[in-house]
Each structure stands twice: as structure tokens, then as C-alpha cells.
């Protein structure tokens, strides 16, 4: 039974090596879970790279937040300084949704002034989510320098079928 013992040993070795390399490669990857706590503590999904096109990165967007350690949202990035110009909270405690709307300075993340923007939701990027809620919808419009994100318990409160309408028509809210 010497053969099967050494086979076992090398299987264990391969398993250990793959755990070690998985740990290494997973390290720089940012998470795809965001959270909204209040107008000072919240996250948005953004392209993983500076200057990325919003719609072209709908399969790769990652969570960036106002600070690194957000409860329920591990491994998030932090917004570049000055990127968020304003943030206004709205919520409906009866329907159980919460949203943040406001202005960005697109230059702080190299976003293109010709980028009409796009939408992120639980299906794009696949697996992305807003901690504590079943659904979310986010639109970012670099050309208008506005953004909006709403997290919802109920699907109908987070409409994902109007991505070209823009923040003001889809979610309303304050964009000052
Ligand atoms: C989006 O879906 C809602 C709910 O199903 C529907 O009432 C609305 O007409 C749809 N809008 C568009 C633009 O497809």
C-alpha cells in the first residue's frame, strides 16, 4: 500500500499548494458587495480600473466606498478623494428601500465626459449585491456627473429595465 500512501501525500501537497496560490491571487481583487448605511457611509460599483467605461465594465465592476471597512462589504475599494461631490439619502422604511443620489467629479477617476453611463444591478456584474437587501440598481452618468443607487427588499422598487432613462427618471432624488 506504499503506492496509495504516496499518492495520498502528493494529493495533499497539490491541495496545499493550490490553497496557497488561490490566497495570493485573490488578494488584490476587490469585492462585489456594497452597502448603504447613510449619506456618509455608502458604496458604489465602479469599473475596476481608473478611466474605465461604465457600460463596458458591467461584468467587472467592483465596490468602492467612503471608507475601507464597511460592515457586510468585505474587500471594498475607497473612493478617490474628491470623486463624490454630494450625497443625498432617501429611504422608504415601509417599502424597505434606501438610496443615495448625488454628484461626482468624473475627473477624479478619469471617467470620460463623453461616457453616457450605464447601469449595474445584481445580474451585471453577476453576483454583485447590496448587503442587507435582495436587489439594487445603480446608474452612473459621467457625462452629467451624477450617480444614483437604490437597494431594495422588493424587486419592483429597484427597476432594472430602464437603464437608458438615467438616474433622474429611474430613481428621482436630489442631484444638487
Ligand atoms: C419596466 O418594468 C415595469 C414592471 O414590470 C413595467 O411596468 C415598465 O413598463 C417597464 N418599463 C420599460 C421601459 O420596459
Automatic annotation (TrEMBL):
It comes from the Eukaryota. The keyword Signal applies. Keywords: Signal. Residues 1-22 form the signal peptide. This is Uncharacterized protein. It comes from Mortierella polycephala.
